[in-house]
Amino acid sequence: RRRRRRRKRLGISQAGRLALPSAARAPALQASVKEGGTMVHIGDLPEDILLDLLSLVPGRDLVLNCRLVCSQWRELVDAAALWKRKSQREGYLPPGQDGNIPDWRTFYFLCTLKRNLIKNPVAEAGFNYWNLDSNKRDKWKIEEQLGADGQVQKVFVTSYRLCMKHQLINLKDEGYWDELMDQTKPDIVVKDWYAARYDCGCQYRLDVKLLSVDHIVLAEFSPPAVVIEQWSDAEWHEISHTFHNYPSGVRYIYFRHGGKDTQFWAGWYGVRVTNSSITIGPEVAS
Q1: CB atoms within 10 A of CB 77
Q2: How far apart are CA 153 and CA 124, in angstroms?
Q3: Alpha helices, DSSP H only, in 37-141?
Q4: What pTM does this model have?
């Protein structure tokens, strides 16, 4: 019985969790704490200090839990000042002036979600996560060679017949809920790297589609095939495209690339590809 009374006095539920005081209980708790002269109720803290404390709470907890505590906390969680402060605390800073950020909460969540959505982009896991659409003759192969940054890395290599592979990205599975995509329409940035051998010509292809829930194409980037002639410099080339202000309803991203050699040589003399990426969200200062 003594233990139960102590748990109740500390605000601990039977399940062992610290129970936050409700809005109705807060004044009583505030008065009793003030009588001792050693502490004040959290609701009596200056707003600036309370914003600092709330900025330490994980974003999802702010929206799903803290916002429900009382009207004061709801107003603070809904305020741009909290999300701006939280973004700054966690290093999510827009390049240049911040006056172009219309919604700091959306900006914060997009920053936390931002990452490369292409899985296994540099062949560290073999062909895992890739669907091999065209894999003819000598087929795809993985080799090690100098990458665009001068470091040895693994690359995907094509042969003398067309080799193509793709990934289909489910945005909801990656954390991008429907309202976020439809209302905000964050930039979708696609990048890929390709190179030829110096002694053999090759062809490179890229096809990226934004798809609806029924796989209807809403936007597309399909540049003409790139042909690199024999005896080239074998340098790495980056191709990039940003989808802006696309139609509502984007639920999937289809990424497909590959190519072949143009000399029809047996073996793996076709285009090399590596370090593919798809990112969603705003730019941040480095």
Answers
A1: 20
A2: 9
A3: 47-54, 59-64, 71-78, 80-89, 104-113
A4: 0.80
